[in-house]
Design brief:
Elements: H1 4-9, H2 11-14, H3 22-58, H4 62-99, H5 104-129, H6 132-138, H7 143-153, H8 156-175, H9 180-202, H10 211-236, H11 238-241, H12 254-286, H13 290-326, H14 330-357, H15 359-363, H16 374-389, H17 391-406, H18 411-435, H19 439-468
Length: about 475
Amino acid sequence: MTDVAELELTGVAADRVVGHDLSAWLKEARALWKLALPLAATQLAQMAVMTTDIVMLGRLGKSALAAAALGNTVFFFTWLVGTGPAAAVSPMIAHVLGENPNDRARVRAITRMGFWAVLMLSVPLGVLLLLTKPILLSLGQNEALAVSASYFVLPLTLGLAFNLCFQVLRNYSTALGKPRASLIVMSITIGFNALADYTLIFGHFGFPKLGVFGSGLATATSFFFSSTMMIVVVFATPKLRQYRIFRRFNRPDWTKFAELFRLGMPIGLTMIFEAMLFNSSMLIMGTFGTEFVAAHQISLNVPSITFMVPLGIAMAATVRVGLAAGAKDGEGVRRAGYTAMAMAVVFMALCGAVMALYPRQIALLYFADTADNTRVLALTVTFLYVAAAFQVFDALQVVGALSLRGLKDARTPMWLAGASYWLAGFPVCLLLAFGLHMKGLGIWIGLAFGLAVAAASMCWRFWYLSRER
């Protein structure tokens, strides 16, 4: 017998749209935006946490900022590997709910195996983080920066597992149509992280001044805080609590476990191909000097902030496309994907215009206008002009990739990403930076070219698969 609780469980599927006319597209846009808005806000909250770290480290000087940037290069790689299975939780649950909105058992098994997967991966990834110094030295980085970066990363070896568990819970709540759960947690975490940074970096409230190490420790503590708070919010939310995701936590479901890795590892590699292109650009910048690294870090932070909105839209598209695919609704698949692309493009076009019109004003939010920072400011302004040009490409590539994720299509997007970023973008970076002696500007033009190729290939792939459906 279907009771009130079970009717509540159907909420995530209740927003499914049927029909072929304009009203169906408008309904899809409303349903997508209802899910995407809190997801985008959550992404912006995460960026606020990262931006707080950067701003406070910037007050220590260019060397501290550059060291943390290099340390984050190593940490981000391990995080991307670990977050692949966590990212697979959302489309897998969406497919289940599209097929049967009241299937608690399979949703619970997917989430439980998501925890198993990320906890298992945290051990070897933590060991890799302990090797940050030799890794950076082998890549030709300055020894003093490599040592400082290793201090920054050290606390993160323990914080990684907590962050990955947060990602599992976040994708679980998103797939169930409760994205505000993670938004609540990240909003609180902003204040917690800012206080931890202020206390540990600069040595306030009786704590020692820990500098770069204090920043890493504050970040790791924030990871623990956010994962703990997310568990509290899940238990405090009736719809999320009803699935009892921690019930019989030691019971394996090897089919779901294998699917998480089969879908999740290509997802992780897809993200790695893109992210490591940008992180490799950071390493190349390191060969040009500290000023290039600092300017590059700031110039990446700005489009990273704007990128959070289309990423939130793309995450919503994963769920919307997945629900339609689980229900065998080919028209719904196309409508969800294309609506998300249109929304993301409009937003990023506006962001690109702002970057192109006010690059120096944006740079001054990070650096003081002093004689010592003249060169860094000039480089930042130049890089931001290029960032303005690739905003729309960035929107299309992420929405295209995550719409394909909603179709459980992971392997082909992985190869498309690899080719776009490493066979197209990276060679152009090297050619322009070293062959034509354009240095940092050449690297940024190469990044824009890689994103353009990725956008075209991901959107084509979605068009092809959705047409077949």
